[in-house]
Design a protein that fits this description.
This protein is an alpha/beta fold. It has two domains: 184 residues, Vaccinia Virus protein VP39 (Rossmann fold, 3-Layer(aba) Sandwich), CATH 3.40.50; 48 residues, N-terminal domain of TfIIb (Single Sheet). The strands form two sheets. It has a seven-stranded mixed sheet, sandwiched between helices. The chain has a four-stranded antiparallel sheet with strand order 6-7-8-9. Helix 4 links the parallel strand 1 and strand 2. The longest helix has 14 residues.
């Protein structure tokens, strides 16, 4: 990967895991997989890829249901954690890989949770979608879970603090880029020991029209769009934009 590394190369560390420990739980992953599988019907032999799987919460949930699932993530420590968390009686495949590179093919479903497609330049994001379209079997599905841009753009600046399970704190400051295409966030972690740790992120915000255009260029057809995992129809004020698309 080399020079392509960016903010995400060091953002996803132990501090991040502390930040999301109480929010991104295995129970929440189970609810999200319940929703996904209620909307996408796969055969018993369906092959699934979770791109940007992190520590494997969604992969573990799908594997526990007997599905043939692969998890891909750039972070080797996250992949190692996922492998350690995999119960001995459960089968799943974990691969340390950059989603911008070629991955195994012939999947029936590719999942991208939590805005992972927005990490890169517009050209690289589009290239990922183009490649995923090629990696899917005929009539294969894409499950794309993004933040809805509109509520974030409605608040150009944001600030909030969190208590962490380890007793430390995290302070988040967010600001839109001048063209409102990106949200930049700075996280300051304090544990009471040593200097604060500062991490910065930049996510691409996609409107409904923009993501529809990107998917169309990759030759996907949108089947449905939802605003949350409660199945509500996508609306301008929805917190998320969950898109289910299929190869044309």
């Amino acid at each position: 990967m080399g020079s392509r590394s960016s903010w995400f190369a060091n953002f996803y560390d132990e501090n991040f895991l502390q930040l999301v420990e109480n929010a991104a739980t295995q129970a929440q992953a189970a609810e999200e997989i319940d929703f996904l599988l209620s909307k996408i019907k796969l055969s018993d032999k369906g092959r699934i890829a979770d791109i940007g799987c992190g520590t494997g919460r969604h992969v573990l949930e799908m594997a526990a249901r007997g599905l043939d699932v692969w998890g891909f993530d750039l972070n080797p420590e996250f992949i190692a954690t996922a492998i350690l968390d995999l119960p001995s009686e459960t089968t799943a495949n974990f691969v340390c890989a950059d989603m911008r590179d070629a991955l195994p093919r012939d999947f029936d479903l590719i999942c991208s949770f939590y805005n992972s497609i927005g990490f890169f330049s517009d050209e690289e994001n589009q290239s990922c979608l183009d490649r995923w379209a090629r990696d899917l079997n005929p009539k294969g599905y894409l499950y794309l879970d993004l933040w809805n841009a509109a509520p974030i753009r409605a608040h150009p600046r944001s600030e909030r603090s969190f208590g962490l399970p380890n007793g430390g704190t995290a302070h988040e400051q967010g600001e839109l880029s001048e063209d409102a295409r990106f949200v930049d966030r700075t996280y300051t972690y304090r544990t009471g020991v040593g200097k604060p740790v500062i991490r910065k992120t930049r996510f691409r915000l996609y409107s409904q029209g923009e993501i529809e255009s990107c998917l169309s260029r990759a030759e996907f057809s949108i089947s449905n769009q939802y605003g949350a995992i409660d199945g509500s129809t996508f609306a301008p004020d929805s917190p998320r934009m969950i898109t289910i698309a299929q190869i044309d």
